[in-house]
Inverse folding.
């Protein structure tokens, strides 16, 4: 039982990170119907930015309180990563909007390749380890919960609450949902569609940057190629939950997190990713539009 | 499989107790009708009446909630369409269809479009690809024959000059004809046409009529037709079925249907004195206001009848899936029924009008009747509509 | 309440003002993007701790270059491009195209002279100019050769356009011979010719042709049937491992295993396709991606069979149809049988012709299938699936055949790959490979064999060329390795080509049948499928 609860907590931590990344995928998909393949690398850029900020803080000050360090890392990562995603959207996706459907997909893959290799070229190909930032571990009835995990879950919950408010209660969120439904009509009603889409990318990137910072804090290491696997898994999570649905993305992220940690705990750690992908395939076969996705009506 | 009753031998399609529900929404309720072999049967009704849904059930795109759809082929075999998989309906039961919003393979040439339609035949001839891949002559002959058939239909549809152009490049009317030609290339016994005349200009409409008559006369293919253009319907169809809100309100020859008060009510609205009650029920205050300040009495009773299409807009916009939301009391045919039951049919002008009309009025009288709701304030229409009073 | 409010349109500004402003924006954005990543570099010190190395000068250079580039583009590039489209009022003609301005006789003569002089001086370049400048000179020579060849092609462009396939196949068939001959003349001996040809035949020829074959295989699935497959590399892996395992375990010959690998990949294609083909659009894409990853992860983790990440080595070489072998120690070694000098180039040249043959087989089958009902049904499926069903086409089996056929060619290419490398490991079958293959299909123009071949040549050949740019070390210092920038440039090239030609190099489609004359269908009519 303790073992199970332990895995549950591990899964929750992992799932929070996936969920944060998955939101970026699902929002972009919802609003312009494209798979932003570069999003995993955006996450990696976020983590790398946090790493560099961490090193700058270490170099400038003798000691910085961990909370402040994390906060600064997160904020700078959010800003710079948003700038990356904003630029990518403007340069690589916007000119292709409304053209051939596969074209933006290819530019997204191209951007993904370019981003990870850009980081490789500028920062070197090696793993970048940092000393542990938070190492406190609580032991509650045989279940060990690290402070890192608590921080991840709390930060995720706070961000999701903020995000939920933004999307559901503000005019910005209303504009976004309107663009999702019908971009042309939204434009006719005076919504600045380009701006709304840009903001969507910025929001997705900001969440991915937070996920990157948390990832760096949790694992203590990042490399230029680390964007792909979490990216694909987060995308899997988004599809699993029903792409286009925001609660679905979080739910999917948590599910992938649980599947991974449970599978590694009870079966084999080697096949945890295989399990996650297989479950995706099985879910989609029975629920072709994901768990919370709206079923696609075939119009004749 | 075949039905016992003798009268069905000449029925190519029998629809019995067909119902289709989407969630709690009844799109078609207990619909039964027959389409006779070698005839053109028209399915008409206001927008949202469930016509396309009937088509989708017949051609297997929807599985009906209830009911039986029997197709009797010329060779005596019968098929229960609701049990066949989608793609086997054209392949085995020989039912072909066209679509309301044209579905051509727009990046392929006209000829290729017609060759795709002969897929199953050519697949067999090519030995399911394997023999054809190694260049067996059987496929080459079949391929040449299929091109001949395609040329035949291109000529019929008057498109042979553009055979090597992409289908997406054709003007609208030509696309409609191409879609019919493509459906004919599958060698159907029943051809289902979903609004073939929608959006055509009069000249194109004439060409379409000619094509349909040609198909009927020369191939023996029976036609089931959804149409809003009453000129087309009255001119070419042998048999008309009228739907309103998913239910059949009339069924018979074009002439009989045209004079059926329930049909007129469905299309024109009900008579003047009932209008306000209907509108109140429908909740359309704008129209009531227009009515109050609107036309003077000198226009006669006929003029106002065309205002009352109320919520049912006709021929202007075509919804893609015909979803019906029936507001209480919106069915005008139902009101006619109710009224005739309650008041033992007073000789009201709206009902009497068509019966008094001389037979020469034919399609010209029916056409404005159908079109009228789309453009409510056209005096010409209303004058013509009430011209005989 | 304007729909799109862009300040540029509201204020009438001269191009110069606009360019300056745009350049400032671009500079600010570049500064933001690069300040941490270029301005600072994370490095490990002696005690393995991360430290930051400052590179502000590099950051400044990059930002200034970005600004200058943006300025030049807005100030000169955009007006120039706009002018290209304006018809001259007096003559009614479009202005001279860029290509016509670029390829001119005087330039051509200059290029020829440069090449001649530099080839003549080839041996003494180092002595004359020193090693640094000699590197530039060689690069200049390469550019001049390329320019001269391009000019010739431009001059004969109508002829080339009319006979593209025939010319292309001839050129490909003659390529190793020409390479060997040129290098033999240059090096002065036949042996040197063979030795020198290794790189050209293997790195360029075989490498590019493998991608051509893979892309042509994927083209059947994506380009014709319109099913978006992001896990194509899985079938490549199945083929490679089928040959690697069966070849090493049972010693079966390549010629038996080649069809077996194809069949196995096709079988996997059907197995995967059956449950997932009713999925639509991006769901299909993600499931195929997941499938590709599953295959790779199984290859990594099923160590008893696949030897895990270490891979399988010692895969037998292909024999010359069982008559001769390419193993030096073997009594049937090709050089012994034919009584010629030993060289490893024979095997590479043989492999080159083998993959060329496989490519041509793929092309032949694709062209044949397109004219058959099944091929037409694939394209119809891409155009409109619902209409297909209304015409009695069984869409499930049609999709499955497309999947299986595409997978089969992937399997062929995989077994060839295993035979060529003599070694396979899961490293070769990562998602990036799927992405590259898909990119080649889309960049080439979906469905167009010629376009795809050109795209493979440009993208794969182009990145291989970067390996040759050693002289850049003279500029950027000895630490500079151009190869590192290969994938960065590849990714950027993908973006740029897509922005330039969203429908790929060849946007039009050849009809499969015609009544009077065959006219290419413009890409604006074809659909890309939703699957």
């Amino acid at each position: 039982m303790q073992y199970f609860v332990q895995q549950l907590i591990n899964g929750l931590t992992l799932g929070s990170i996936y969920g944060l990344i998955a939101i970026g995928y699902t929002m972009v998909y919802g609003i312009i119907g494209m798979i932003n393949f570069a999003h995993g690398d955006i996450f990696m850029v976020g983590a790398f930015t946090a790493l560099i900020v961490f090193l700058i803080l270490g170099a400038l000050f003798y000691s910085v309180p961990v909370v402040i360090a994390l906060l600064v890392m997160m904020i700078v990562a959010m800003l710079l990563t948003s700038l990356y995603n904003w630029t990518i959207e403007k340069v690589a996706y916007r000119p292709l909007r409304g053209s051939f459907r596969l074209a933006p997909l290819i530019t997204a893959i191209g951007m993904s390749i370019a981003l990870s290799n850009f980081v490789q070229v500028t920062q070197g190909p090696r793993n970048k380890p940092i000393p542990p930032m938070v190492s406190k571990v609580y032991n509650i009835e045989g279940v060990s919960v690290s402070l890192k995990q608590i921080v991840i879950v709390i930060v995720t919950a706070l961000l999701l609450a903020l995000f939920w408010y933004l999307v559901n209660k503000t005019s910005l969120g209303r504009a976004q949902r309107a663009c999702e439904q019908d971009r042309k009509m939204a434009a006719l009603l005076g919504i600045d569609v380009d701006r709304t889409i840009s903001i969507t990318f910025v929001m997705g990137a900001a969440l991915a940057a937070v996920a990157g910072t948390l990832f760096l804090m949790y694992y203590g290491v990042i490399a230029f190629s680390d964007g792909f696997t979490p990216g694909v898994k987060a995308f899997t999570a988004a599809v699993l939950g029903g792409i286009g649905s925001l609660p679905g993305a979080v739910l999917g992220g948590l599910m992938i997190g649980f599947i991974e940690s449970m599978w590694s705990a009870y079966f084999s750690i080697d096949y945890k990713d295989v399990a996650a992908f297989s479950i995706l395939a099985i879910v989609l076969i029975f629920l072709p539009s994901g768990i919370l996705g709206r079923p696609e009506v075939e119009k004749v | 499989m075949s039905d016992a009753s003798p009268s069905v031998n000449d029925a190519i399609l029998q629809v019995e107790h067909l119902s289709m529900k989407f969630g709690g929404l009844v799109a078609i309720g207990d619909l039964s009708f027959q389409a006779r072999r070698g005839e053109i049967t028209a399915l008409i009704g206001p927008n949202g009446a469930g016509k396309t849904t009937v088509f989708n059930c017949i051609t297997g795109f929807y599985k009906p909630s209830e009911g039986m759809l029997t197709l009797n082929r010329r060779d005596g075999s019968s098929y229960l369409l609701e049990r066949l998989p989608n793609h086997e309906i054209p392949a085995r039961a020989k039912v072909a269809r066209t679509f309301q919003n044209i579905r051509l393979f727009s990046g392929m040439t006209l000829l290729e479009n017609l060759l795709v339609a002969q897929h199953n035949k050519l697949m067999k001839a090519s030995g399911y690809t394997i023999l054809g891949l190694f260049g067996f002559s059987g496929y080459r002959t079949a391929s040449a024959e299929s091109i001949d058939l395609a040329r035949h239909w291109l000529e019929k549809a008057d498109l042979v000059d553009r055979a090597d152009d992409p289908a997406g490049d054709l003007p609208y009317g030509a696309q409609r004809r191409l879609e019919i030609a493509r459906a004919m290339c599958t060698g159907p016994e029943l051809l289902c046409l979903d609004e073939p005349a929608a959006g055509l200009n009069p000249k194109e409409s004439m060409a379409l009529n000619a094509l349909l008559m040609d198909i009927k006369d020369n191939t023996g293919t029976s036609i089931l037709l959804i149409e809003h253009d009453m000129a087309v319907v009255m001119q070419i169809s042998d048999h008309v079925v009228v739907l309103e809100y998913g239910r059949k309100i009339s069924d018979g020859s074009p002439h009989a249907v045209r004079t059926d008060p329930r049909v007129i009510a469905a299309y024109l609205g009900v008579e003047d004195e009932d209008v306000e009650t209907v509108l109140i029920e429908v909740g359309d205050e704008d129209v009531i206001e227009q009515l109050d300040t609107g036309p003077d009495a000198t226009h006669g009773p006929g003029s106002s009848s065309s205002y009352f299409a109320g919520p049912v807009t006709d021929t202007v916009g075509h919804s893609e899936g015909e979803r019906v939301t029936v507001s209480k009391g919106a069915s005008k045919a139902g009101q006619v029924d109710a009224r005739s039951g309650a008041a033992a049919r007073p000789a009201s002008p709206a009902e009497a009008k068509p019966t008094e009309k001389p037979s020469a009025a034919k399609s010209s009288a029916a056409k404005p009747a159908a079109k009228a709701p789309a453009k409510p304030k056209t005096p010409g229409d209303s004058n013509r509509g009430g011209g005989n009073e | 309440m304007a729909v799109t409010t862009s300040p540029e349109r509201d204020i009438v500004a001269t191009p110069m003002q606009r360019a300056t402003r745009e350049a400032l924006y671009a500079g600010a954005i570049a500064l933001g993007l690069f300040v941490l990543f270029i301005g600072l570099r994370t490095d490990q010190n002696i005690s393995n701790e991360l430290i930051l190395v400052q590179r502000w000068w590099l950051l400044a250079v990059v930002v200034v270059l970005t600004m200058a580039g943006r300025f030049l583009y807005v100030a000169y590039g955009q007006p120039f491009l706009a002018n290209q489209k304006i018809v001259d009022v007096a003559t009614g003609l479009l202005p001279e195209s860029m290509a016509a301005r670029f390829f001119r006789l005087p330039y051509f003569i200059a290029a020829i002279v440069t090449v001649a002089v530099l080839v003549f001086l080839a041996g003494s370049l180092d002595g004359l100019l020193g090693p640094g400048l000699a590197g530039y000179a060689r690069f200049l020579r390469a550019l001049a050769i390329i320019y001269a060849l391009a000019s010739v092609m431009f001059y004969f462009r109508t002829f080339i356009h009319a006979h593209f396939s025939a010319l292309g196949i001839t050129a490909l068939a003659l390529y190793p011979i020409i390479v060997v001959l040129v290098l033999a003349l240059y090096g002065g001996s036949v042996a040197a010719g063979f030795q020198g040809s290794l790189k050209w035949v293997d790195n360029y020829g075989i490498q590019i042709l493998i991608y051509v074959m893979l892309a042509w295989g994927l083209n059947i699935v994506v380009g014709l049937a319109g099913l978006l497959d992001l896990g194509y590399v899985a079938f490549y892996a199945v083929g490679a491992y089928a040959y690697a395992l069966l070849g090493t375990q049972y010693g079966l010959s390549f010629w038996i295993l080649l069809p077996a690998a194809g069949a196995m990949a096709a079988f996997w294609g059907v197995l995967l396709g059956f449950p997932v083909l009713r999925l639509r659009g991006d769901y299909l894409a993600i499931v195929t991606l997941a499938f590709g990853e599953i295959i790779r992860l199984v290859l990594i983790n099923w160590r008893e069979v696949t030897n895990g990440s270490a891979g399988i080595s010692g895969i037998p070489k292909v024999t010359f149809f069982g008559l001769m072998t390419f193993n030096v120690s073997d009594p049937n070694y090709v050089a012994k049988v034919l009584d010629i000098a030993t060289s490893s180039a024979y095997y590479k040249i043989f492999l080159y012709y083998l993959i060329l043959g496989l490519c041509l087989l793929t092309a032949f089958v694709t062209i044949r299938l397109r004219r058959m009902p099944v091929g037409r049904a694939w394209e119809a499926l891409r155009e409109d699936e619902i209409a297909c069903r209304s015409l009695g086409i069984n869409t499930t089996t049609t999709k499955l055949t497309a999947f299986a056929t595409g997978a089969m060619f992937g399997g062929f290419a995989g077994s060839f790959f295993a035979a060529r490398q003599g070694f396979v490991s899961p490293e070769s079958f990562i998602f990036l490979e799927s992405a590259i293959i898909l990119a080649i299909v889309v960049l080439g123009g979906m469905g167009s064999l010629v376009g795809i071949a050109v795209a493979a040549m440009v993208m794969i050949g182009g990145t291989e060329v970067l390996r040759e740019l050693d002289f850049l070390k003279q500029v950027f210092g000895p630490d500079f390795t151009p190869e590192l920038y290969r994938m960065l440039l590849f990714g950027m090239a993908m973006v740029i080509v897509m922005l330039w030609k969203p429908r790929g190099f060849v946007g039009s489609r050849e009809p499969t049948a015609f009544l009077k004359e065959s006219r290419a269908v413009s890409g604006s009519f074809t659909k890309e499928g939703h699957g």
